[in-house]
Each structure stands twice: as structure tokens, then as C-alpha cells.
Amino acid sequence: MSNTHYPIGQAGIAWQSAERKAWLAQQKIKRSYFEEVMCRFDDVPPQFKKINYGNLPYDKEFAQPHAYPLFAFVPQSIDGNKPSVLISGGVHGYETSGVQGACEFLIHHASQFLDAFNVVVAPCISPWAYETINRWNPMALDPNRSFYANSPVPECSQLMDFLNGLGLSFLAHIDLHETTDTDDSEFRPALAARDGITLSNWGIPDGFYLVADSRQAQPDFQAAIIDAVSSVTHIAPADEKGQLIGSDAHQHGVICYDKKGLNLCGGITDASFVTTTEVYPDSLNATPEICIAAQVAALDGALNYLMKV
Q1: Which residues pair with 295 in a beta bridge?
Q2: So what family is this one in (predicted)?
Q3: Whole-prediction pTM value?
Q4: From 41, 111, 293, 299, which residue has the greatest number of CB atoms within 10 Å?
Q5: What is the C-alpha separation between 281 and 292, in angstroms, rounded?
């Protein structure tokens, strides 16, 4: 695959400002962060406090329809003697069940874990990408490769500043994602075009899987999540090479990435227990409701496991 398959740019030549502007001009608002996500915040139980930790002023910088306030939820009373757990969704805004799963968990499940943990939830880190059903932000930058010091990506820098301000040491971080058919049909071709490189198709796994941190895979933790999710949806089998999306399966339904080395959201803390969920919404055996339920089951499975360690 190369950028000859993509309508912007020339094969083998990385995008410059003109190509990035042409890409942005093609992006359209397709759904509402305010009506589909922020409206759900009214249903969050009173044990949590809503914090407006930042704002994406894309209306001014990129002539988008409006600015995007960023929100996170923390316990009304943070107890420094409790371990803390971070849950993040919508780093890639197009991955719908990550956002809605975080909201569903926050509204209906999170309170039951507050006796054991300080539960911190950032439901939608990339709201412009949620509205435009995108992997990138308006600068054609991928937030989930941009969590590093002095990041030019405001979705990342504002979240990191917020978390640093909390002063918490996190035991765990669960980052909610999807792998969709559009990863191969749109987003990887766009990446190849943007960077002037050639990429091979992954082949999208049919089912749920996890991405552990290669520095500390925590196989029992991952297995507990896989077990919890398997009651809701099917777990992706490895391919004939024993791989998922081009990476070796370390255990059933689990691959590993270097979270910090790749500047992923999963590497923003020093948590001992880290995983990224990957739901497959395009499966013939999946529905939007099943995908959201799988994200919630993953969170329940993760926190129930941590309560026993």
C-alpha cells in the first residue's frame, strides 16, 4: 500500500502544509460531541466531580464550527491512601465504543469501585475527531502517537498537564479503543500518504483483543480482562502467523507494544497494570450495544482483578 491509493499528495513525498490543508478541507462534522457525549455527563453520579481540564480552540485556529471543552471526572474526595486507576476513551475519536463505553462505565459502574480506588475517567480525549469520525486531529497528527513532553498536540498536552496536576500515582491505566475496517481502508492509506511511505495492510482481527505494555505485560491481569469480555463478545483469534495486526500474540487475545516508546496514551503514567482494549465493531457478530458492553466488561474485569492483588 502507498499513497498512490490516496487522493492527496504524491507517491513517496511526505505532506507539507498544502496537503495537510487539503486533507482538513475534506473533513466534515458527522455527529455531535455535545449531543452524544457531553449530554451524558449529566447522568454521572454525585460521587464524581466534573473537571473542565482544557479546551481545543479549533474554531479559531482551523475555522471549525466550535471550540471543544475537555472533561474528566475524579472522585469528590480523593484519598491519597488508595490506589488510583485511570480510564481513558476517545484518544482516537472515531472509535465510538471507547467513548461511549467510558461514559457507560462512569455512569453505571464506577461508583462501586470507589471504596477501593480513586477512579479517574477521561471519556473523550479527542472530541473534534469524535465529531468528524477521525483518527487524527485537524493538524493531521495522531494523538495516540503524541504523548510526550512539549507535545504539539493539544489533546495530549492538556491531558498530561491535568494528570500531572492531580499528583496521583496510578496503579493502573485502561485505555479504550477499537480496531475498525477503516483502519485498513482509510487511516493507514492516509498515514502512508502523509509520511510518503509504503505500508502493508494488517488484516483486521475479527473480535476483541488487548494491547499490553511490553515492559510489564502482566499476563494474569490481561487474562482476567479477556475472560470477563468473553462473556459479552468473541475474542479475536491469532492469524496463521500467530499474530494480531502484525504483532505476535503473547497469549490468547493479547499482543504487546512499547507504550512509552511509541508515545501512546497507555504510556502517560508509570502504572504497573496497563492495557489497551481493542473492540471490532465491524464484525458480523457485533452491534454498537455489544461493543459498548465489551468495553464495560473489560473495565469491570480489570478493576475486579486489581481488588484481589
Answers
A1: none
A2: Belongs to the peptidase M14 family.
A3: 0.97
A4: 299
A5: 9
Residue entry with cell 469520525: 133
Q: CA nearest 211: which of 251, 184, 172, 241?
A: 251
Rounded alpha-carbon distances, angstroms, from residue 51 to 43, 54, 89, 121, 252 = 15, 9, 16, 10, 38
44, exposed or middle or buried, with CB in 10 Å at 0-12, 13-18, 19+? buried
pLDDT value at residue 1: 39
Whether the CB-CB separation of 91 and 181 falls below 8 Å is answered with no
> Alpha-carbon distance 95 to 285, whole Å?
18
Q: Whole-number mean pLDDT of the chain? A: 96
Structure confidence at residue 50 (pLDDT): 98
pLDDT beyond 70 at 4: no
Q: What single DSSP character describes residue 96?
A: H
| Domains of the chain, residue spans | 3-306
**Could you tell me which residues are beta bridge partners of residue 166?**
none
The pLDDT assigned to 61 comes to 80
Q: For residue 89, what is the enclosing H or E element?
A: strand 84-89
For domain 3-306, the CATH superfamily is Zn peptidases (3.40.630.10)
